[in-house]
Amino acid sequence: MHSLLELPAAAVRDERIHTDDIAVRVASVGKTFARTDSTDLRVLDDINFSVRKGHVTAILGASGCGKSTLLNMIAGLLPADQGRIYLNGTPASDFTDWKRVAYLFQDDRLLPWRTAIENVEFGLEAERVTRSERRRRAEQTLHAVGLAGFYNAYPNALSGGMRSRVALARSLVKEPKILLLDEPFSKLDPGMRAQMHTELLQAQAERGITVVFVTHDIEEAVVLADEVVVLKPRPGRVRDIVTIDLPRPRLATDHAVTEQIRALRALV
Ligand SMILES: Nc1ncnc2c1ncn2[C@@H]1O[C@H](COP(=O)(O)OP(=O)(O)OP(=O)(O)O)[C@@H](O)[C@H]1O
């Protein structure tokens, strides 16, 4: 099952191609890290895929195959040393609308000296938003992720799941068009992780956000994603792009979901 979004290499190399419904395009991207022992580590090689606007895409692969490196390049945190990454048709190096791109890290990175609401407001401090508007939007977003009543709690008084919600709210308050997530729920227990999946999908559907997330968890990829980019390691290459065309909510106990998990397991 290949996605139509897997553009042919020749088309990918043609920088004139602008498809209005593509939010992220990764075109012939490669990355090599120089190591202290002066040997180079080729982490990613000739990566090609596209992410449709409003879709949820998983980047799935074993530990060390370059998933975080790829996400960091999409986020503009790392340059690609081969190929190009485009956001809304613009090369990442020329892209200016980074305020509409949010990144949720593996650890929640909450500021311990700030309350929940102050942590969420932090997401807006780089923007031209008045203090009262900041407070209003932070309250509204915390409410939307089920944390009304915990506005003034400090992170150390919150459970892991609640901290994840605050971190999600801090990303959503920016009203991102693109949300990038690097295994943000991997430290949660399975029940809490399932709740966070529901929160994420609800926010994504309501706001039409494009989501790209990294995971090594096949079940998480099948439950959340419209498309799964499967990477194989050393160096990281695209093994396959699989479309998950199942209705939501997807329960890991449903037959169609377990079949899809089984099919993906054979690829990873
Ligand atoms: N800045 C860096 N300098 C040198 N090597 C790096 C750097 N960042 C990552 N690497 C190496 O690149 C490889 C891929 O790392 P990356 O974190 O992208 O993989 P991953 O698939 O996200 O792994 P995990 O699931 O364990 O987080 C690893 O071998 C890692 O040690």
UniProtKB/TrEMBL annotation:
GO terms for molecular function: ATP binding; ATP hydrolysis activity. It comes from the Bacteria. It holds the Pfam family ABC_tran. Belongs to the ABC transporter superfamily. The keyword Cell membrane applies. It comes from Pollutimonas subterranea. This is Nitrate/sulfonate/bicarbonate ABC transporter ATP-binding protein. PROSITE patterns: ABC_TRANSPORTER_1 (PS00211), ABC_TRANSPORTER_2 (PS50893). Keywords: ATP-binding, Cell membrane, Membrane, Nucleotide-binding, Transport. InterPro entries: AAA+_ATPase (IPR003593), ABC_transporter-like_ATP-bd (IPR003439), ABC_transporter-like_CS (IPR017871), ABC_transporter_ATP-bind (IPR050166), P-loop_NTPase (IPR027417). CDD domains: ABC_NrtD_SsuB_transporters. Residues 24-260 form the ABC transporter domain. Transmembrane segments: none annotated. The keyword NADP does not apply.
